[in-house]
Amino acid sequence: MSREFASAILLTLLWPPAAAVSLAVAVRGDAVSAIGLMLLAASTSAAYAFDRILDRPIGDGPALRRFLIIAFAITALAAFVLAWFELWRVAVCTGLALLSMSYVPLKRVVPKNVLATTAWTLSVVILPGVTAPAWNGEFAAAAAAVACIMFANTTLCDLASMKDDKRERVRSITVCYGTTAATLASAVAAFAGTVIAVDANALGLTVTATTLAAISLLLMRSPAWFSARLSADAVITLLPGPIALLIA
């Protein structure tokens, strides 16, 4: 397997659904359903595969593109079928699908951090539940904490792709305001997520947000010190769900 294929499988088809499921477990706890989690995983993989297909990265050859198209078709079909087990999920999936289809042109107008945060938050907090959520109390606070976490995460991840984003004229916090402002914005968002997650009584989200805040502060001093993307992605994948399960 080539390096391009391995990277595509990891960053497009494996990491995004794993991170989404981990965050979902931290937010919904015992209220998640197996079908909801499978739907979340399938729809997340489909969205990332579709984005990569439209973006056409320079290193993606014809064989990889065919692989991604097949993967997108399979995951999108799986998401479509799974959504129909509960009709209230259909409306949510329709909105997320429209956002995914318009993401590539939109991110040249609206900062992609905002778009990604919106999509991730809505999918993570709504799709996995046994029932549609009631937006009040601790649940609303947990959803807000996820939004802060994802804004911090996507901003840190953009540090590594700033040159590519500039070349493709993609708008992001990093491109528009520079690395110092981006890491500061990430730190502020992560600290806010910590405070909100404590209010939501969500320890998994609290630890995740606090860790992202620490990473942001380190990167403010040295943006190239270590891989921002890998560290930020590892945090939102390995911490929220497992911690929530350990204390359940």
Can you tag this structure with a few keywords?
single chain; 0% strand; 248 residues; 79% helix; mainly alpha
Helix/strand layout:
Layout: H1 3-28, H2 34-55, H3 62-83, H4 88-101, H5 103-106, H6 112-126, H7 137-157, H8 162-167, H9 173-199, H10 203-221, H11 228-238, H12 240-247
Q: What does the overall shape look like? A: globular
- Termini gap: 39 Å
How many helical stretches? Answer: 12
Structural class: mainly alpha
Low-confidence stretches: none
- Our Rg estimate from Cα atoms comes to 17 Å
Residues in helices, as a percent range? over 70%
Total strands: the figure is 0
Query: Sheet bearing the most strands, described?
Result: none
- Secondary-structure element order, as H and E? HHHHHHHHHHHH
Strand content: under 5%
Mean pLDDT: 90
